[in-house]
Amino acid sequence: MNGVPGWEGTGCWRLIAGAWFVCLPLGVAATEPVERPIDPVERLHWAFQPLSRPSVPHPPEGLAAAHPIDAFLQARLHAAGLRALPTADRATLLRRATFDLTGLPPTPEELDAFLGDATPDAWERVVDRLLASPAYGERWAQHWLDLARFAETDGFEHDLPRPQAWRYRDWVIAALNDDLPLDLFLQWQIAGDLLAPDDPRALIATGFLLCGPDMPDINNQDERRHVLLNELTAAVGEVYLGLQVGCAQCHDHKVDPISQLDFYRLRAFFEAGDIFQDHVIATPAERAADQQLRAQRGALAGPLEGELKRLEDTARQRLRDQNPDLPPTADNLRGVLTAEEQALQHTLKQQLARLPPVPDLPKGRVFREGSSRPAHWYARGDFRRPMAEVAPAFPRIADLPGLSPGDGGPAKLRSRRELAFWLTDPHHPLVPRVLVNRIWQFHFGHGLVRTPSDFGFNGGEPTHPELLDWLAAELPRRQWSLKALHRLIVTSAAYQRSARPAANVDEVWSQLVAADPENRLWGRREPLRLDGESLRDALLAVSGRLSDRQGGPGVRPPLPAELVSTLLKNQWTVSPNVEDHHRRSIYLFVRRNLRYPLFEAFDRPDTNHSCPQRSRSTVAPQALVLMNGELAADLAKALADRLQADHPAAPEVQIASAYRRCLGRFPTPSEKERAAVFVQQEGLASFCLALFNLNEFLYID
């Protein structure tokens, strides 16, 4: 090449060398990559600092902050020369908290009870009531399922169903309703089979690792396993650590101090795991009882089956003796038996049929430790190019001194058990911060860090780092109780602030919006649009159609006719039980390649990936599905029928009741007057449909 002018300067030789390297035969080992040490400056990034518990600030002179959250926020507002908006009115607060904690609107009876309760702890008792409701777990489980990429099908071309996937969804709901400590909640999803092998709940929890898309029918199962392990490793990094570790599958992360070896060392924790599609999930006592029942049934069925076998053998022998050319069909065999033998055969079959069957033990889709396998890193992430072996290890940037658990044994023997304990160490620099930031985000619409799954260099910085650290340190002090964290947040003045200007605080509002348009100081609340699931559940609730049935396989309500005409056979088989069509949205079947139309219009996330924060778009299909959709029209008629049944021949009362059910308030005099004219001209069902389309119904102040 030295004889060719200009080659050295153009870099063409690098292109040829790179092409030659790519064309190396698969399996040829390249030189192990040199892992760049982490620069001490990189460790100064806020998210990698050791977790401490800051002192709660003293309120500025002349101001009071009885709540620690408010003390942190008030200090910043005071420093900026701003004041926060006052508390919202009681009706607004009840609607906000009820939707926030249960995903449902408050009933008129609940509204009356709260408005009429003058006791000092009225708000705290409302919060406790909502947290004790089964609807709480059904609401908050959806937040976690978004993160977990939960679906009931595999995705990809064939999108095959996963018959047992629903058990993971039900486990999440039950765990939240039971207030399972969050450290245990997180540990079981990483290593439940190792931490509590005899507890069915712990086995089901490992379904988190298997929630992502899969290709069970792919020709090369080695490729399938490689893709699956990479996917779940990336999900663990994103959901637990708030780091985009998946960006290091093929090369070192371009921005964060995460090497390709970091990725494959983290993946090595999962290398010995096996996928069980129909694994029996039962306690030892349940297994023993099952064996006993089967033995008892066998003792009764054995003699009957033996006598039936004797009669069949007799018939076969007679058939061979009498007419060897006849095939031994059921009719031919029965024909060679005597009348007495046929009667005996019939009696035996009846007796056998009357024996109660032994129900199968429940089965689930679990990730369970199997045989030991060597773990490798892969050149350019190619499953066909395994390189040197790697031992399980925690990502270096997140592994502060004193965090790593272990018994002094060889690193290659580390299991998911150690990973689970490391992730839930109370002093972990990332996991507690990531967790409380997510909870704050689900309550307020934004997190203290506005990139909830990216705490790395590409992510945002916390608006209130001291508050974030205080909450993160407070979580283990409150026994990792999520409900305790809810109470802490929801009882703060910050949570209860008004979201709208009022005559007496118009200047305060104007100053806040001008100085802090993105509300990073949390001086006001922001109206939040209902997601698709809460919207559908609210429509069902106010119309009186909502079913309270819980759990079980996902249900399939009817789809719009225009969509059904485009589907493949069996792509969406409508559930036969009509009551199932009115169950809460979390129980609707989740098909990766076919989103429920209402949910898709209102930004239901793609379940092929972890979703840390849903979009909140405002687009035409949302108005169309609420104005013209079959579901909205049907439920508007159901609400009208309910109002007429409750208040016959009383249009004014019907209108007032509709406002109370849909909007949580009475109509104003002008609203009553216009509504009466509208109902007289268009009918009560059309009026109910109009209420469904109001921003006041769709948004939570």
Automatic annotation (TrEMBL):
Domain DUF1553: 416-677
Pfam families: PSCyt2, PSD1
Signal peptide (from-to): none
Annotated ranges, domain DUF1549: 68-272
Stored PANTHER family: CYCLOINULO-OLIGOSACCHARIDE FRUCTANOTRANSFERASE-RELATED (PTHR35889), F-BOX DOMAIN-CONTAINING PROTEIN (PTHR35889:SF3)
Record's protein name: DUF1553 domain-containing protein
Taxonomy of the source species: Bacteria, Pseudomonadati, Planctomycetota, Planctomycetia, Planctomycetales
